[in-house]
Amino acid sequence: MNVLWVFAHPEPRSLSGALRDDGLRTLREFGHDVRESDLYAMKWNPVVDAADFGAEAGDGRLVVGATSARAHARGELSADIVAEQEKLDWADAVVVQFPLWWYSPPAILKGWFDRVFVKGFGYGVQAEDGRTLRYGEGRLAGKRAMVVVTAGAREPAMGPRGVNGALDDVLFPLHHGTLFYTGMSVLPPVAVYGADRVPDEQFAEARDLLRERLRRIETEEPIPFRTQNGGDYDDDLVLRPDRAPGVTGTAAHLRRAT
């Protein structure tokens, strides 16, 4: 299996860095081919601007979606974006690792998605019959994705009644709105809590958890998100009344919420 590991932490000697190093070794031990995008080490530019789109940007008002689609179709995207898209095309699975900062990934990772998942590649993809392919379909369909996240909060505080909100809800924009949106099958996350104060024994537990999850990366059941075009949503993309009646919020978009 080809696995792309996208790493977004500024300190390679951190807990995250140690887990990344062990995770890459583990994947190779299991016989997988691995490539990495270490965004801080690469000094990745997270800012979308006209330079991303070559001649397609022109001199007028920049309309990012339309311009990026033309640049993608005509081979005008900047070389750093193309290199990341080629890694994604190569990959069968993508591991996205980051510390949770202010309820979201670091800006450098958000900027990776902003610049790499351009229209025509990450979104704005249509079937021959005109259907928009997203939320379970799309150009990246058939690939698997798994988030590895470290959080400063302790686990109870990110539970169903914790003050920080449940981790599944915190990660919903990334899991559902980015990875699943582009067609990928999203595996349950690997989470390490209290990451600023992890004793040796807890690190060993986190390492072993990650190793076990990587061992199952080809076979683990993904999060059962409802596909957009699978019949659960009406023409306004609202859940039909007989789907998860009485359930609202992110949980309603899981197939197990019947």
TrEMBL record:
The keyword Acetylation is assigned to this record: no
Family: Belongs to the NAD(P)H dehydrogenase (quinone) family.
Pfam family, one: Flavodoxin_2
Molecular functions per Gene Ontology: NAD(P)H dehydrogenase (quinone) activity
Matches recorded under Gene3D superfamilies: 3.40.50.360
Keywords attached to this entry: Oxidoreductase
InterPro entries named in the record: Flavodoxin_fold, Flavoprotein-like_sf, NAD(P)H_dehydrogenase_qn
Domain Flavodoxin-like fold per the UniProt entry, residue ranges: 1-213
Protein name, UniProt field: NAD(P)H dehydrogenase (Quinone)
